[in-house]
Amino acid sequence: EVQLVESGGGLVQPGGSLRLSCAASGFSFGSYWMHWVRQTPDMGLVSVSRVNPDGGVTHYADSVTGRFSISRDNAKNTLFLQMNSLRAEDTGVYFCAKVYGSAWIDSWGQGTLVIVSS
Amino acid sequence: DIQMTQSPSTLSASVGDRVSFTCRASQSVHSWVAWYQQKPGKAPTLLIHSASNLESGVPSRFGGSGFGTEFTLTISSLQPDDFATYYCLQYSTWTFGQGTKVEVK
């Protein structure tokens, strides 16, 4: 059974940093694209970043380019999202998500809440 | 970016009703569309992929159709467990629709 468990969320001041982690199990982690998807009341679901199986190809939403960095440790079955220069609009629930092949998202973690506020 | 416009944003219905809602893409996404169900406080779960393929384990009352720019999710007979919010996703360039909330009439 696929399991994705996020951690690292919390309350941070504007301009601060957080590092999210996603521990994966139940599948061959190093063989799949992975996403970080943010959910907010205003913007709904947005894929903020994705990374290919070997970590060499990454994509970012325009709103986080230059501030967020996605990475993965395939030896430890873990996905990361380094978030710097955080803004109030980065507040939301961040889901780690697994892609089927190079196609649709087929599994989601339970999410971790990030609140950016002074 | 390809935009996905879902309608309606809210749908009021009763148990046993047949309900449908749509996603329109701002340009063709072929059949690269998935549908998800989300309940409050939970992660989304996959219902349909490739526009019309039912994910394993999903009840057969759920069905998807469409190609190109217009896609539909249909629930043939609404069950109590189906009151939730539904999202489409186009995985050509990875954008989600804004969601359709199915509520009790």
Produce a short descriptive summary.
Helices cover 0% and strands 53% of the residues of chain A. Chain A has strands at 3-7, 10-12, 18-25, 34-40, 44-51, 58-60, 68-73, 78-83, 92-99, 105-108, 112-116. In chain A, the strands form two sheets. In chain A, strands 2, 4, 5, 6, 9, 10 and 11 form a seven-stranded mixed beta sheet that branches.
Description:
The complex is a heterodimer of chains A (118) and B (105). Chain A is an all-beta fold and 118 residues long. Chain A has strands at 3-7, 10-12, 18-25, 34-40, 44-51, 58-60, 68-73, 78-83, 92-99, 105-108, 112-116. Chain B has strands spanning 4-7, 10-13, 19-25, 33-38, 45-49, 53-54, 62-67, 70-75, 85-90, 95-96, 100-104. In chain B, a hairpin with a 3-residue loop joins strand 5 and strand 6 (53-54). The radius of gyration of chain B is 13 Å and the shape is globular. Chain A binds chain B through residues 35, 44-47, 50, 59, 95, 100, 103-111, and chain B through 32, 34, 36, 42-46, 49-50, 55, 87, 89, 91, 94-99.
